[in-house]
Amino acid sequence: MASKEKTKESKFKKYYKIAVDQISGIFFPILNCLTAATIIKSVITLLASFGVLSPDSGIYMIFWAVSDGFFYYLPFALAYTASKLWKTDTVISMLIPIAMLYPELNALIEGGSELTMLGLKIPTTVYHSSVIPVLLAVGLLYFIEKPCDKFIHESIRGFLKPIICMVIILPVTFMLFGPIGAWIGNILTKIFFTLYNFSSVAAGAFMGLVMQPMVVVGAHWSVVPVSINNVATYGYDVIMPLVGGAVYGQSGAALAVGVITKDKKKKTMAFQASLTAALGVTEPALFGVNVPLIRPMIAACLAGAIGGAIVGLAGTHCNAFAFPSFLTSVAYVGPGFVPFLLSMALSFVLGFLFTIVQKKHINY
C-alpha cells in the first residue's frame, strides 16, 4: 500500500515538474520585459498623478503605449515563446493572437455581441492580456502540424499548412479554449456573492485565496466587468478591495524566495518579481517564482485569504475601478481604508513568513 502511494506521489512530482518546466520555458524569456513594462507604467502613473506629466502629452502616451501595450498584447509574446519551446512554426503560431486581438473582432467578442460561428454564438471572452487560450491553441497547433508536414507534399505545403491549421484551430479557440477562463471565473464569482450574502469575512477570505490562481488561468477577467458595473451602478465596489492582500501575499512570498535562494539568477528574478507584484502586477511572481515552487504559491494564497478576511470585516469600498496596489490606493479612500492598507502590509509579511518557514521543503 505504501509503495503504491509512493508511486502515485512520484508520478505526480514527475508530471508537475514537466508542467513547471513548460511554464518556465514559456515565461522566462519575457520576464525582464514584463518587469520593465510594470516599472515604466508605474513611474509615468506617479508622474501624472503629481502633475509632472500630462496624460495628454506625447511622452506620456508613448510610454503608456509601450508599457500597457505589452500586457494588452501579451498573447503575441506567449505565442512566440511557446512556438520556440514546442517547435511549432512561429509565423503560423502568431496568426492565432492576430485573430484573437484583431480590433473589430476583438471589440465584438469582448463586448458581448451576438456573433456566431457555425450556427453557434461565440462566447463573450476577454482575449487581451490572456494566457491560457493562446497556449492551448499553440499546443493544438503542434499536433496539427505533424500530419501536415508528413502528408502534404512540400510543393504546396507552404501555403496549404497555414490554411488547414487555422481552419481547425480558430473555431476551437474561439468556441472552447477562449471561454475556459471565463467559465471558471463566472462559477467562482457566483460562489463569492453567495458567500458575501452570508458573510463578508468568508467572502473576503475566499477571494483572497482564489484570486491569484484565477490569474494563472485567466479567469480573473470575468470579475472585472462585475467590479466596473458595481462602480457604475452603486458608486462603489466591494470586490477589488478584497484582493489587495492576494497581490501583496505574492510579493512577500517572492521576496522570501529571493532571500533564501543562493542561485544568482533565481535571486534576481525573485526580487524583480516581488517588486512588480508590489506595483500591482503579479504575473512575474506567479509564473517565474511562486507557481513553479508550489509552496510559496500556497503561502501567498493563505496570506491573501487572511488579508481578504480583514478587508471583508472592515467593509472597504473602492470608489473607482482600479487593481489594488499602493499606487492606486487613492481609489480606496473612504470607509475601511486604513484596514485595507493594513491588510496589504500584513499579507506581504505573512506571505514572506509562510514561505520562509517552509524553506527546507522548497527546491530552490
Notes on the structure:
This protein is an all-alpha fold and 364 residues long. It contains 16 helices and 2 strands. It has helices at residues 2-27, 31-49, 58-72, 74-86, 90-100, 103-110, 132-151, 154-198, 200-217, 223-234, 239-242, 244-260, 264-278, 283-293, 295-314, 337-356, and strands spanning 116-117, 120-121. It has a two-stranded antiparallel ribbon. A hairpin with a 2-residue loop joins strand 1 (116-117) and strand 2 (120-121). The longest helix is centred in the middle third of the chain and has 45 residues, at 154-198. The protein is globular, with a radius of gyration of 21 Å. The relative contact order is 0.10. The model has no long low-confidence stretch (mean pLDDT 89).
Low-confidence stretches: none
- Give the helix proportion (percent range): over 70%
| Strand ordering within the main sheet | 1-2
Approximately what portion of the residues adopt beta-strand conformation? under 5%
Number of strands: 2
What gross morphology would you assign? globular
Based on secondary structure, the structural category is: mainly alpha
Please work out how many helical segments DSSP would assign. 16
Rg over CA atoms: 21 Å
Major pleated sheet: 2 strands, antiparallel
The overall pLDDT, averaged over residues, is 89
Sketch the topology as an H/E string, one letter per element.
HHHHHHEEHHHHHHHHHH
* CA-CA gap between termini: 31 Å
